[in-house]
Amino acid sequence: MKKWFPTETYPIFGIVGIAVGGAGYYLYRLSQGPEVVWDRKGDWRPWDKITHDTNQKLITVNPEFWEKRRQFVKDQQTNQRAVDQI
């Protein structure tokens, strides 16, 4: 082994190995985020299915707002259908 890798190069290989491992771990963590979509066969933009009156938060601070918003969107859709029938 000393013929191919001199003793002085062991720290360099160690540091480069740790850097490559850390970079790989960092990329893995980035790839698991909520913005990344790995499903190539399904819908690749699932955020387009969210309507304006859908609450995506885990904790609802103001539930009255979302109820009013839901009712407003429902009224808008009803009015649009009435206009379309004319």
TrEMBL record:
**Transmembrane residue ranges:** 12-28
Q: Which Pfam families match?
A: B12D
From which domain of life does this come? Eukaryota
**Keywords per UniProt:** Membrane, Transmembrane, Transmembrane helix
Q: What is this protein called?
A: NADH dehydrogenase (Ubiquinone) 1 alpha subcomplex 4
Q: Which organism is it from?
A: Kwoniella dendrophila CBS 6074
